[in-house]
Amino acid sequence: MVKKISILGSTGSIGTQTLDVIRQYNDMFEVNLLTTNSNIDLLYQQILEFKPKKVLINNETKYNEFQDLYKVDCEVFGGREDLLSLCSDKETDLLVSSLVGFSGVEPTLNAINSGVDVALANKECLVSAGKLITKSAKKKNVKIYAIDSEHNAILQCLVGEESSFIEKLILTASGGPFRSLEKSKFKEITIKDALNHPNWSMGSKITIDSASMMNKGLEVIEAYWLFGISPDKIDVLVHKQSIIHSMVQFVDGSVKAQLGLPDMRVPISYALTYPMRFKLDVPRLDLVKISELNFEKPDLEKFECLKLAYSVLNEDATKAIILNAANEIAVESFLQEKINFVDIPKVISEMLNKISSNNLEELEEIIELDRKTREFTYNYIGNK
Ligand code: MG
Q1: What is the Å distance from ligand 1's center to 236 Cα?
Q2: Are 317 and 229 in contact (CB under 8 A)?
Q3: How far is the CA of 23 from the centre of ligand 1 (A)?
Q4: What is the arithmetic mean of pLDDT over 237-252?
């Protein structure tokens, strides 16, 4: 059967790599919907190649520009309202959710509430609205396949296992570009240094998150919701080669790991074809060439963002809404040279102290707390 795929954020890093996988199997997949924020030229190329039924341009100016510039064979939509209603489209078999940040929450939730399975690359969805999303998915019997390489690795390790067999999850982390940099040098970190990830090529938000290790913190929270595991059973292990993508330790002492070269097309492909595997044309792992794999404990004093993520989970998981929103603004401000790299955890910690959350569950409450946190964070940074 041909699977109808919709991709939110088709011109981004995950979106283009998803289309790269689909290109290898174009008789098995049909593209229903592609969306972009503003990259209309690439979207046009994608329309010509993948012939989607519908496309959406989020940015209004770019939507108008597209309508003037291009004549296409598919329906063209524009703006957030249309995005939200298109996500409820039952025509889709699998929605690839790869918007960046909190903006992905509502569209993803709409798909879930319409009974559409989701391949999830937007980790902020689970971080901010994990309780609501997992509850809605259960109610609608919707499957969520993580595209995040760590969670995808765990998904692969858990095939044929029962949740009661799990002793702990071990999320691996590359440690980013500052793994071996002394803490005293952190105040000299520039934007260029932080955007220079040793192993993975990704969008700028996630690259900065990887440098601060907030990415791993968000992933611990993501794992907590996705696999229903308590925080004390989720370990982070620094593994600089990024060959082992994560591991599961079972009650009998056995440990399963998933290995491969760092290439997002592998987890994307598994999320698209689960529980099947299709032959994928990507470079193969050569362990002789790699020759050694190293491991170390994460330094929580150096990478305070990771520590903050654990503390949020131990206190009240809905505080992750504040953690996530403050982080998004802090990263944006760092990229605009308004704050230093070392200020990122300071800003987040300040917001966690200032704002209370109270175990929120409803979407409106989550959106409001996210909005309020952004406003507070902007003001705090502006007055610094
Ligand atoms: Mg990851």
Answers
A1: 12
A2: no
A3: 24
A4: 98
d(CA 305, CA 349): 9
Task: Check whether 68 has a pLDDT greater than 90.
Answer: yes
Classify residue 265 as exposed, middle or buried by CB count within 10 Å of its CB (0-12, 13-18, 19+): middle
As a whole number of angstroms, the distance between CA 263 and CA 241 comes to 13
Eight-state DSSP code of residue 233: G
Q: CA 312 to CA 310: how far, in whole Å? A: 5
For residue 107, give its domain range. 3-146
Q: What is the CATH number of the domain that holds 116?
A: 3.40.50.720
Please state the pTM of the whole predicted model.
Answer: 0.94
Residue type, 216: K
pLDDT of residue 383: 85
Quick check: is 305 in a domain?
A: no
268 assigned to some structural domain: no
Strand partners, 250: 166
Residue of 36 and 102 predicted with greater confidence: 36
In a domain, 324, yes or no: no
Pairing label, strands 75-78, 94-97: unpaired
- DSSP label at residue 58: -
Q: Has residue 165 been placed in a domain?
A: no
How far is ligand 1, taken at its centre, from the CA of residue 66, in Å? 33
Q: How far is the CA of 51 from the centre of ligand 1 (A)?
A: 30
**Three-class SS string for 338-381?**
CCCCCHHHHHHHHHHHHCCCCCCCCHHHHHHHHHHHHHHHHHHH
CA 42 vs CA 47, 73, 189, 376: distances in Å: 9, 16, 33, 36
The total number of structural domains in the chain stands at: 1
Average pLDDT over residues 26-53: 96
For residue 225, report the distance from its CA to the centre of ligand 1, in Å.
15
**What is the pairing mode between strands 117-120 and 94-97?**
parallel
* CA pair distance 353, 5, nearest whole angstrom: 42
